Structures are given as C-alpha cells and as structure tokens.
Amino acid sequence: MITVLVVDDQPLVRQAVRDILTDSGGIRVVGDASNGREAVRAAAELAPDVVLMDIRMPELDGIAATEQICAGPTGATTRVLVLTTFEEDEYVVAALRAGASGFIGKGAEPEDIVRAVHTIHLGEALLSSAATRALVQRFVRRQSPRAGAWEDEGLDRLTEREREVFLLVARGLTNQEIAAELVISAHTAKTHVNRIMAKVHARDRAHLVILAYESGLVTARP
C-alpha cells in the first residue's frame, strides 16, 4: 500500500486527487495540506511514500516545501511529485533542483495520476521525460556549465559505460530502453544506473538529468 500526502491550496483539487487515488486501490491518502508549511510538518509526522505537491501556494511555496521535505527526516524515503500546469517552466525545474522526482499536469487523466504515483514510488523512471527534458533545456541554456561540476559531483569517477548510460538517462530513457539501446539486459542497465547515482550522490533519475545539463555532459539544443 503506497501512502500519499496531497498538497494544494484549493480544497476542490485536494478532494478530487484524494478521491482518484483512494478509488484506485493500492494507494492510501494519509493526509493533505493547504500550503507548504503544513506540508513540511505533515511529511515529517506521516512519512508518506509520495507527496503530491502544488507549486504556487501561500505561506511557503511548493519549491521551498519540496526542498525542506527532501532535506528532512523522511527525505530518504519520501518522493515528491509536482502537480503543475506545465506553463511554469522555471518553477518546474526549480522544483526538480529542490529534490522533486518528477511532475505531472493537473489536467491529467485519473489513471495517469495513479500511474504517476506508482512510477515515482518505484523510482524507475522520470515522469513525462520528453517534457522534462524540454523544460531543463530551455532553462539551462541560459547558463554556462557550472565550473568544477565534474569533480564536485563525482562525474570524473564514471566509467566509459556508465557515462554512456548517464547520457541515455539524461535523454529520458527507461531501463528497458537503455538495455535495448546498448544491447544489455534490463537488470544490467538498472545496476549501472544505481551505481551512477551512488557515485554522483544523486537522489533519483530526475536529479541525474539536472546534473547532466548543469555539468555540460549534455548540451541544451538551441
């Protein structure tokens, strides 16, 4: 049973998401919050597996709340899924930087929201990978690769094969797709991804995508 905390400043949205998840089976909504400050407290008290986080909220916005939750006592086990309208590009990227594991639009179909929660909980893939890459590209194109990123993040310790896998993760490929691309087993692909995350101290695949662009390993397209 996956436990979920729903965070949104609109009561109707909270109730709608709660109903969708409760009716799906296999998911239990353990609480909700109307702002970021409440979300941080609830996450610490309830230790949910997944937090569905709105971005724009009073008192403490979703980005700041995400950062506090990911750095808090349950940060190692609680994953944050951002609820967004996809128009707020910089806000989404900022949420990913703060520790969010992915994002999904508020207008998504109920089954997509349920699937998103399961996917984030499993940590198998970054949600909406194509859209995420587009957002990251548009945002990091304005910046130069961060000086010293290779050494600071441990990227210089990656083997040639791990660097290949890292590039494919940054493109948004799943373990199965990476396996097909490199003609290896899905288990081997997953092992490579886990080793990469350990070497560069990444929280998840979303964090790997951010690092790939920040370090200059992947260059944003014009």
Describe it for me?
It holds the Pfam family GerE. By secondary structure, this protein is α/β, with parallel strands linked by helices. It folds into two domains: 122 residues, Response regulator (Rossmann fold); 70 residues, Orthogonal Bundle (Arc Repressor Mutant, subunit A). The protein is globular. Strands 2-1-3-4-5 form a five-stranded parallel beta sheet, with helices on both faces. The N and C termini lie far apart (44 Å). The mean pLDDT is 83. It is built from eleven helices and five strands. Helix 4 links the parallel strand 4 and strand 5. Helix 1 crosses helix 5, helix 6 runs parallel beside helix 11 and helix 8 crosses helix 11.
Brief account:
The chain is α/β, with parallel strands linked by helices and 222 residues long. The chain has helices at residues 11-24, 36-46, 62-71, 89-98, 110-122, 129-140, 149-152, 160-170, 175-182, 186-200, 205-215; strands at residues 2-7, 27-33, 50-54, 79-84, 102-105.
Please name the CATH architecture of the largest domain.
Answer: 3-Layer(aba) Sandwich
The CATH H-level superfamily of the largest domain is Response regulator
The number of distinct structural domains comes to: 2
> How many helices in DSSP terms?
11
CATH fold-level label of the largest domain: Rossmann fold
Q: Pairing-aware structural class of the strands and helices?
A: alpha/beta
Order of strands, widest sheet = 2-1-3-4-5
Overall average residue pLDDT = 83
Secondary-structure element string: EHEHEHEHEHHHHHHH
Please tally the β strands and state the result. 5
Question: Which descriptor suits the 3D outline?
Answer: globular
- Please give the radius of gyration in angstroms: 17 Å
Helix content: 40-55%
Question: What is the CA–CA distance across the termini?
Answer: 44 Å
Spans where pLDDT lies below 50 across 5 or more residues: none
